[in-house]
Amino acid sequence: MTVSLQSPTDSEQNEADTSPPQRYQFRKNQRLLNQALFSAVFADAPIRASHPNFLILARLNTTGVARLGLVIPKKHVRKANQRNQIKRIARETFRKEQHKLPAIDAIVLARRGAEIVPRQQLTSLFTGLWKRITKRASAPTP
Description:
By secondary structure, the chain is α+β, with helices and mostly antiparallel strands. It has a domain at 47-142: Ribosomal Protein S5, domain 2, CATH 3.30.230. The protein contains 4 helices and 4 strands. The protein has a 4-stranded mixed beta sheet, sandwiched between helices. The protein starts with 9 loop residues before the first helix and ends with a helix.
């Protein structure tokens, strides 16, 4: 059996070089930072994705980039390490899905019982919620 090692042709290299690499970073401009931004989403959130333990509220924005806010209250998740874990996983899944999301302002809300969701399920749960948000945001409004 012979294996030939061919280098890509010039046209294949040019195609690969023309598309900028996608960066999976979570920068400050992708965060909801003040009360006014949070209030705007709470007041008018036509896009929702729900789970018994979590809720994502979202609305389209004009910044051209998806932004994330987190509300994980101590009332619902008592232990700080559990709150931090939920926030970390929510940010991580948002970071990975950010290129598929439209320009939205989204808030992740923890509900009662959020701390009982196992860590392994949190990632798949948030990924599924982000996909639902993407689908509902791109659907035409009636």
